[in-house]
């Protein structure tokens, strides 16, 4: 699935400095609801990176208006965010040709808000993939190893609100010890039925002396037990791979 090519997409980058998944998920769900986000990604920060706790990316889709240029649409897409955080939308910088892969960003210093910080605001033309492979951290914030087993669980859940989907499936994310949660609002082809695609990812250390196949079976079995409470029809797939997100292609 892709963001519509008739839209532009604003991307808000947020940091939540806590080690408690429930706290970070609560902030994420509230902001997703406030902005009407069409997608979100909540992830535990890389312990070898520059941030602590969790990072949140919110994606806000904005249709390009009739007779509006792509550059004008990019400026309009960031306006609600700029107004909330008292940023100057006139400072938006457009890089490259918005009609041919260009993008825009609004430079500002980190902005501390109650319970989180805003550190980036981008806008890009639509058409990008909504389900993408990613680097996955461990749930205990310890550094990764090449032998780690990376799991990806896909769910399809009723309702088009990513914030509500995060609140509803937070217990499942916690049970599977997800380090990254990706949620995208979608609509079934040829139908008015709306749903959210949910991906839960985590990285688990291999046991001493365990080969890759045995490790994959162990993690898949553990996930099967922890996903037992997921309603029938909501679970799409479970995949486990050594080192990389299973969505990557060799």
Search tags:
eleven-stranded antiparallel β-sheet, 2 domains, 250 residues, Alpha-Beta Plaits
Summarize the topology.
Elements (H helix, E strand, L loop, with lengths): L6 E10 L4 H15 L3 E6 L9 E10 L6 H15 L8 E3 L7 E3 L5 E3 L2 E10 L23 E10 L3 H14 L4 E8 L6 E11 L7 H15 L8 E8 L8
Antiparallel strand pairs: 1-3, 1-7, 2-3, 2-9, 4-5, 5-7, 6-7, 8-10, 8-11, 9-10
Helix pairs in contact: 1-3
Structural class assignment: alpha+beta
**What gap, in angstroms, lies between the N and C termini?**
20 Å
The DSSP helix count reads 4
| Whole-number mean pLDDT | 91
Total separate domains: 2
Q: Evaluate the radius of gyration.
A: 19 Å
% residues in beta strands: 25-35%
Helix content estimate: 10-25%
Specify the overall morphology.
Answer: globular
């Amino acid at each position: 699935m892709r963001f519509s090519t008739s839209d532009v997409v604003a991307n808000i980058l947020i940091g939540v400095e806590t080690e408690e998944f429930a706290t970070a998920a609560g902030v994420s769900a509230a902001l997703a609801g406030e902005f009407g986000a069409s997608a979100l990604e909540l992830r535990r920060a890389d312990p070898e990176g520059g941030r602590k706790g969790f990072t949140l990316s919110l994606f806000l889709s904005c249709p390009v208006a009739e007779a509006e240029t792509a550059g004008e649409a990019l400026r309009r897409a960031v306006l609600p965010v700029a107004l909330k955080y008292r940023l100057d939308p006139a400072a938006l910088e457009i890089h490259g040709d918005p009609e041919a892969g260009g993008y825009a960003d609004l430079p500002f210093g980190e902005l501390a808000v109650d319970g989180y910080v805003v550190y980036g605001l981008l806008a890009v033309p639509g058409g990008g993939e909504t389900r993408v492979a990613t680097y996955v951290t461990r749930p205990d914030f310890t550094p990764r190893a090449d032998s780690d087993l990376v799991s990806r669980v896909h769910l399809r859940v009723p309702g088009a609100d990513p914030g509500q989907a995060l609140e509803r499936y937070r217990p499942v994310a916690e049970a599977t010890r997800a380090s990254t949660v990706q949620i995208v609002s979608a609509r079934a082809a040829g139908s008015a039925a709306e749903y959210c695609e949910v991906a839960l990812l985590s990285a688990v250390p291999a046991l001493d002396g365990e080969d890759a196949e045995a490790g994959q079976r162990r993690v898949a079995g553990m996930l099967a037990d922890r996903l037992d409470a997921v309603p029938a029809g909501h679970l799409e797939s479970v995949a486990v791979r050594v080192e990389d997100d299973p969505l990557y292609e060799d």
